[in-house]
DNA sequence: AATTACCGACAGACAGTCGGTCGGTACAAC
DNA sequence: GTTGTACCGACCGACTGTCTGTCGGTAATT
């Protein structure tokens, strides 16, 4: 039986299947056969739409990224929100999902030894995508006298890389207590980096309280 | 033809071959057949000594790590060297090699998209191995009034993760100029983190001058 | 005679290729 | 406005080559 669809629809079906399977079993753990079965297409079809298995991953990351970064960018541009609140909101948007809530699941399963390549690619996208969104907010903060640094971009880069590695990845195993002390130290360090008054960023600690599980009151 | 050797010798022959091949062609790009050919043994022999291909990688990382971290630890413990010099020396030892110079080559080829898993494992080892070596030196610095921070360990963690990601990996493409400005900002940021006097760490910039190519005057 | 190191044929799985097929659409002819 | 036809994009699935890991057996060593 043969079902014909528009190319972009098929493409997205494949990406949807891959998203779920990669999340469950990792990239290496997922065979193209698995994807074939889930979508209900033949091998040739898959390779008609994508040139390799890795190509699927790249497309998936790009799709997910466009969502997430777009949402974050949107919040970042809203100058009616006070600087510190806005930073918090932006980071929330980055951690939780890309609006529709469809891209949430992958993020929860990505930090596994198996998915190293995917993880690395996402990491790269985060590093080049997030600091440019946050930096303008920091600059506003500098104008307002809340922050003080010559290197807002580099600070954001450092903060993003560190937070992403320690708090999102499982690079270092932590009990909840250790994690809490890391958060405290982190906030204190960020205050120093940004030249903010000591304690002025403590309010962002709530972000780490529930970690990535938070999903109650986002009215987005 | 059948050549019998002591298990540990064979093991190391295999690791030597794997080290070179992984460096040249990456982990995924290297087949167990390649290793077999290079060492001159049969499949069964390889799997007599290692339980899987990944097991080879793990063993290799562990071997390399023991060398590098050992050398760094050795320098770190030498209290006759002034604090800042010592930090510099330790970091040099980490970047350059593990003493014998045998493990240098891998490090040069590891930062490639192919070797994601190996890279991740090494990253993990660095993150859990390096800060504990540097922290006591920072503490000495605090006692001497050079530094001032409540969180020496977390600072080192942040610094190590950032430097390793930005300067060692190719996570973000940089021209030499951009790189230089990153180094400047980095040093300035580290000074703030450690509560060091502004400019007091500028001397470590030499480390980044020639990047990882430096290998002239280490009298080790 | 027992243990340790080694061999190589083999099974099973998987990514990617290729020739061929089918459905839809545009458009001409009637 | 119905029928004929030419074309193309989407789709199929058998096949190839490669690779990892296994297993039964063999040679050296103690």
UniProtKB/TrEMBL annotation, chains A, B:
Ranges annotated as spanning the membrane: none
The HTH tetR-type domain, residue ranges: 8-68
InterPro entries: DNA-bd_HTH_TetR-type_CS, Homeodomain-like_sf, HTH-type_Tx_Regulator, HTH_TetR, TetR/AcrR_C
Pfam families given in the database record: TetR_C_39, TetR_N
The entry's keywords: DNA-binding
UniProt superkingdom: Bacteria
UniProt-listed SUPFAM superfamilies: Homeodomain-like (SSF46689)
DNA-binding region coordinates: 31-50
Protein name from the UniProt record: TetR family transcriptional regulator
Annotated organism of origin: Paenibacillus phytohabitans
């Amino acid at each position: 039986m043969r079902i014909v669809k528009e190319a972009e629809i098929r493409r997205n079906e494949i990406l949807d299947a891959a998203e779920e399977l990669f999340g469950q079993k990792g990239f290496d753990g997922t065979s193209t056969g698995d994807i074939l079965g889930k979508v209900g297409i033949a091998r040739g079809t898959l390779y008609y739409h994508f040139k390799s298995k890795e190509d699927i991953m790249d497309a998936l990351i790009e799709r997910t990224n466009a969502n997430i970064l777009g949402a974050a960018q949107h919040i970042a541009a809203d100058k009616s929100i006070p600087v510190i609140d806005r930073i918090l909101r932006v980071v929330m948007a980055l951690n939780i999902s890309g609006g529709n809530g469809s891209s949430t699941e992958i993020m929860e399963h990505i930090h596994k030894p198996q998915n190293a390549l995917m993880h690395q690619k996402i990491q790269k996208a985060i590093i080049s995508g997030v600091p440019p969104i946050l930096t303008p907010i920091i600059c506003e903060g500098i104008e307002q006298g809340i922050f003080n640094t010559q290197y807002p971009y580099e600070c954001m880069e450092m903060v993003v890389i560190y937070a992403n590695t320690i708090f999102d990845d499982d690079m270092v195993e932590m009990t909840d207590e250790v994690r809490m002390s890391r958060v405290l130290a982190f906030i204190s360090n960020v205050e120093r980096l940004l030249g903010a008054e000591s304690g002025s960023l403590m309010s962002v600690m709530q972000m780490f309280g529930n970690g990535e599980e938070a999903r109650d009151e986002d009215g987005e």
